[in-house]
Structures are given as structure tokens and as C-alpha cells.
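Progress report, Aim 2. The chain analyzed during this reporting quarter is listed below.
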Amino acid sequence: MAKTFEDIDDRLATWIGGQKVFFVATAPGQHEGHVNLSPKGVDGTFAVIDQRTVAYLDIIGSGIETVAHLRNDGRIVVMFCAFEGPPRIVRLHGRGTFHLPGDSEWEELMARFPPQPGARSVIKISVERISDSCGFGVPFMTYQGERGQLADWVNRKTEEELAEYRAKKNAVSIDGLPGLKE
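Predicted C-alpha cells for the chain:
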């Protein structure tokens, strides 16, 4: 059943790359606020950098919990579920950092992803524990395609409107922890 892995080998990296959705969970330290769990899944926004490092492209949204929690505590877990094919759940536990436009690693990290409207940060994770479990309880689901609403919404905004939105919606977490600074 459940097992752990020393690293993300080519076989596991290929499996991860074939998943259409992943989930990211974080929490502030010292029980300071709410646990956050976010679904992610825009095609091409997750990358295995090496056997112990992964990253994903964080796209503008109505909250900033992951960035705020990483700033506060750094703990993060990413979970993938097989909705097609053999059942499987993979979890990557680690410590995360976020990288914003203008940061020293920004361009290098962004080169790993296709251009995405609304990219606001890259979350980079140093993976400390890699595990999988059976996934017998995960239902089969059929992938029908990407939703276009997020890109459409971003593309209708000017850079000034997006900056105003980030300042209003992404400055602090739901618990008042610092998020993005404009």
C-alpha cells in the first residue's frame, strides 16, 4: 500500500506530468490561522526541476494564502490523485518559497512554464518527503479540457487594473498575514 521514495525518479516525474490537477495545502505556524487547500490545474503550470525540487506557476486569484503561509512558516504539501488509469495518490511534503517578478530566480523559473496570463509568482518547493498511497477511494473522472475564464478575465484587464486587484485581494491572507506587496 503506502510507500515512500528517496527521490522523484523519471517514472514518477512522468506520472506527475500526466496529471491534470493537483492540490496545494499550507498552514501558518503556531496555529495562527486557517489551513488552506487549493486546487491547481492550468496545463503546463507544474514542473519537476530535479529529484528533490518542484515548482508551480501561481496565477492571480482572489486569495493569497499559499504565499502568506510560506512567508510565515514555509511548510507545504502538494498532492496528486489519479482520476484515470490505475489508482494512486502522491504527496510531496516540503518547504516552499515564492518568487515574484524581479526576483533573482524569476526568469530562470518562468522559463519552465508556457506563458500564462496572470502569473503572479512561482512557488518553488524543496521536497523533504515523497510518498504514495493506493487511491482506491478516488473516483474515475474524465478530463474535458481547460477552463478559459481565468485567462479571459486577466486578458480583459489592464496592467493597472491587475495591480489594483492584487493590492486589494492579495495584500493579506484571510487571517491578516502579509501576502503580496505592490
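Residues 3-136+145-169 form a domain with the Pnp Oxidase; Chain A fold (CATH 2.30.110.10). The chain has one domain: 3-136+145-169. These observations will guide the mutagenesis work planned for the next reporting period.
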